[in-house]
Amino acid sequence: MNGYDLVFSLGKKVLGGGGIVFDEAMALAALDDADTPILLGVANKVRETFTGSQIDTCEIVNARAGGCSENCKFCAQSAHHEAEIEVYPLMGEEQILNAAKKAETDGAYRFCIVTAGRGMEDDPDFDAIINAIKLVGKETGLNQCCSLGTLGDEQVAAIKEAGITRYHHNLEAGQSFFDEICTTHTYEERVTTIKRIKAAGLEVCSGGIIGLGETWQHRIEMAFALKELDVDSIPVNVLNPIKGTALENQERLSPMEILKTFAIFRLILPDKIIRYAGGREQNLGELMPLGLLSGVNGMLIGNYLTTAGRGVAEDMATLTGLGLNPMSLR
Question: Is the C or the N end of the chain the one with fewer CB within 10 Å?
């Protein structure tokens, strides 16, 4: 079957309520660049059919930066690296609240408190984070998310009671590639936290980073793992190599490969949120808006953890210019 027929055949299958299997996703990954625009269009049709034109926007605050004990090769916040970033302890409650109010003014639908570190099981900052979550819930109308690393049952219950509705915890990579990027904790530990969050009735935001040196097989393996875990929101980051990290010299993916990844993820996960995340500006450049016509229906707006975004106003203008509607709190 030629590429044109393959794309339309699998597109019709998904639009009809079916699902594609691993080998079919790999066949899409092998498409020539000449067929990729067709794939993007079909993925856009799947997105429109299953999730409509609304875009889930989220703004984050890096509430505690740097000094992380884990050795993830891509991360500027790892204590194992020598990236030149600002390192600081947990922000005060008012600082976090001010970041949330800015997000609300910016038009974000969701606000996420992020902290560097392995997890919260024995973290002395946890009670202060809970207080900040409650304060944001009291003073804003934002939907709240947080990204605090691994959690035990006690911490899961506490964030839920405080007002968190979705928890972020990336798989980062496919299981068979995970040990190539991190050895201080396991893939299974990440899955355990995700299952614990789902069991508590909270939504899960979990995805990963492409461009780490993984193969298409590793990438698609991650997508199917996210499907099996029934993850609600899938952020797809594109590696932006940062000086001082273990991957500072990693070769960048081509824009067409990045866009193809979004499209294939959409066909694997037709009714989920696939979220534009870090690295899109640096790796896609002027083609960045095309991602929103390749199956994407979520976006981080504002700045990232240690790098700047393109600006909220520009992101919002891109959405409306493409006929997409940022989800509204009102």
Answer: C
